[in-house]
């Protein structure tokens, strides 16, 4: 027998150690490792780490296999890994119902368990008896599964297991927004069982998602069915959140050594080398000790001061653990691996020698890694005095298998048995290396030939959708639908992907499906979305942002490909908007905003783009992997039919087909048929005579009971004007109505339906007896002339604002679902008029401001031209069949309406004289329409108005109607989540009374409700709030630096400041300014927000297109003054008007900073030091107790939020800023150690008011500006005014406006007065003697 080589002998030594320390504990049945000899529980995380040494050793043997025994050993070790990984897989698959449930609820009680029985793999503790939700554990399992599979191990055996793992990918893909218990199973460090967002979990999930993407779980032997698919955007969201958090671990843990496994082996989750370096340095400088690293600051686990009888800590006792936290040698093992992967030999040796000093030798001389080192009970006092001076003792398990396994891996690397690449076959370690520049490919496609020719005029040559065949172009939602089939499995009861979101990274690839190729347009370009999609400039802005994002985020093979379809709805007065032409030219030039781009056609880019195979759409479960899943087949067929054959008429919004804008009045024959997506046999229209009609008419006079309760729910009170919405052309009719219809009548059973309805009316006899007695002559007696006239005016006026007023009024009095009985004929008319008439000229009443209205989802039929005055015209009354304007048994509105739109009263009178025959000749048709059973409600008219306003870019009207119709921003929940996961809290509503704080991601519905509650009836502001949240989320994704030192985004305040800024630049009063604000187009709104966030100066240039013309109020129902109104404009505006530009700039700056909650750097940690030296800080009645410093560390986010909450009690932003300045002066006092303690509770406002007094005294001495207002010699009147709360100069909170407008520095600067105030107010500051003044 050949003698064994040295390396072989050495490996055999490691094999004995691995066998004795690790494999000896592996349960033979399940393959799992128990926690210790006395505890049979098996933790997922510990088990995966334990097996890494075995896997590493097997690969070392594979390399030197110079004898058959070595190959045998290698195989034996590999199979131990497979056994363990499959043991965990079986344990998790037993809980498949939880995986399915968790995708929906994301509740900690529905999560997979963190530990199982090592004997049988079954659960060992209940769902709510343990912090089971540990996303990092499941992620670690998936990551190592991917690495092992890539190294050649076969762990997954069947396609059912593949679909289970695909569902585990869905389980972790939202890690960036799911608070969990984290790597130490604690959640919040007080251990009260509150989960929090942990950077270590997010990082591990990001690594797992990237590792799993496009991985074939059957290794080299697999086919398309065994491949795992991950949407690249999910991993990128985890990365973005991770980068915004590091080096912080969570709200309560400002730093955590557990992050070492995220920045280095095994996750390698951070791409930014600088951030890796900063995180490692922070951990080493604050957590490293002689015996390893502390897990996190104030970690009480196993310290002598911990009370072992209870699981949780009292909040005050956390302070006791400072400086005596246990130190864990485990982290030295991580650091050795970290530096080995960086190939930094010196550091590896340094940590190896440190580690050897603290390892424990067993009887047979093996080095063991202990779990942790604690300060002995009797030495605690000395350790407090001089941290790090005392000898510690081993506590916990020894050997600690997690650490031991990593130690052995480190040794194998150090001795050269393994190369780093073998532990990382997927090459994750290379993530932080510099990548070449990404070139973004852009393809623009015209919807039809007409648009193609228009582009050609500008020397831009593109193809039409038909010409790019065989490549098929689809909107993003088709892709999102196809992805719901991923991971479905009937046997396991798993339902596939739940999230409907597909981001730009996913739509920037091509997809192959059998022999077809699909390109998808990005999600933001989908017009069925919110109204901001109809602002072309904003869409272009978003496009530039997305291209920029692709430059930094793209890391797939091939180049990203952005496909855009230019549609008819993008045209502006039949021309291609200039902004679009300019952008296309820029794209053509090859650079846009510093990103390299290529504009070309789809076929040119086929070879250079990333192509993903949608193989998971086959019917694998039915045994036909090559055939498409039948549901997919039908979905695609329907969709293709819709999107191709009728390309010219297709409107993405509802997918129904309908003719282009109607320029002339149509004859009514067949019109219904053309525009409805549900066709009715046209032959029986209007054949059934008048009798059912009256009944039906009658029934609709009584609004159904379930609507009455609701009547007021959407009433709005906001003065607003034009604005923008999803431009779905006015033809958006069919579908909506069908959904909204209150009385769905099947044309073929119209009799019975109508009888049922009259039955319904009879049940109402008690409430409306009169109507029923007079059944067939209801109209004559109960025509509510008010409503009639209104509806007449509605038909008459061409002015959208006026229509808005009228509809708003109808909503206020009758409710959204009030049946106007205009029936189709009318609506058509309105639609036609809208299509023709456009101007939002003068004459818009104030009601319009109030009334947002939405799309007429009704059909365009020019049937009966209903004379407006029907109710009052005897001829009509006699015709039971004529479609008259509605009568409602509600006649309280006379006074108001007459002036709602007096301008059109003259038209009404003409209309009344219309010759009778005009009314009759169409009656049969109108009857037919009624027969068909459509009811036109106010809501339908609102919808029509909304669509028109979108088209005509009357943004105020759009925002308002959108609010009334309860439209919501589709990405609202996503936007809020984007802000929250980057540790920014969001508040909505106007301070101080109804401000609601959002601290955790909420579902769409709850968010809308919350915003609705915050603004009451003010629909426009509620809509604006949603819009601003979306913009804030865009900014935080693209320019996170704008949000430095801001913890809470108070949207209500931001809106007020935007209005104030407008009133300042346009020199108008508050109401006008809020009007202007609501009329800004979405693009300008985003722009204004940007200027306010970045503090840049701006000017308002044109007041163009009539958008900002303010119209005198005609309606007596003037809406409540908009809530955006400015505090108390009278005095302030008068003052500002007289002052030139240079003045007011500090006031403005303080106002902006206060509204944005911006604070100086390290402000919160400095307040912590102040709080440590006094008993409390009182701000606006809220006391920050000194005990907060006992619980929280200075850099902890939870502490910052406490301070922030106290500051947010102050309603006036500029006053808040002065309070912040006063706190800064206090921090200077403590930092320079002027005094040992600051005494009792400090009332911060007293300091500010004292400073104001000193300021006014100085002003009197030097005859400064303030002598005009606050520094005047007071007389009686003056006193009265001060008592009523109004300073002459309009300064907030009784502080002179001129103090707000003083610079911080200088002899008359605010800091000077604050310091003097501190010296006077605080008893602890010595009153005499020399003191060094260090205030700069």
TrEMBL record:
Instruction: Please provide an example of a Pfam family that matches this protein in its UniProt record.
Output: KPBB_C
- Per UniProt, residues of the Phosphorylase b kinase regulatory subunit alpha/beta C-terminal domain are 1066-1260
Region called Disordered, residue ranges: 870-930
Entry membrane topology: Lipid-anchor
Q: Which InterPro entries match?
A: 6-hairpin_glycosidase_sf, 6hp_glycosidase-like_sf, GH15-like, KPBA/B_C, PHK_A/B_su
Domain named GH15-like: which ranges? 8-1052
One biological process term in Gene Ontology: glycogen metabolic process
This protein's UniProt keywords: Calmodulin-binding, Carbohydrate metabolism, Cell membrane, Glycogen metabolism, Lipoprotein, Membrane, Phosphoprotein, Prenylation
Q: In which pathway does it act?
A: Glycan biosynthesis; glycogen metabolism
Q: Which GO terms describe its cellular component?
A: phosphorylase kinase complex; plasma membrane
Biased composition (Low complexity) is annotated at: 877-915
Q: Give one GO molecular function term.
A: calmodulin binding
Where it sits in the cell: the answer is: Cell membrane
Q: Which family does it belong to?
A: Belongs to the phosphorylase b kinase regulatory chain family.
Q: What does this protein do?
A: Phosphorylase b kinase catalyzes the phosphorylation of serine in certain substrates, including troponin I. The alpha chain may bind calmodulin.
Name it. Phosphorylase b kinase regulatory subunit
Species per Swiss-Prot/TrEMBL record: Drosophila erecta (Fruit fly)
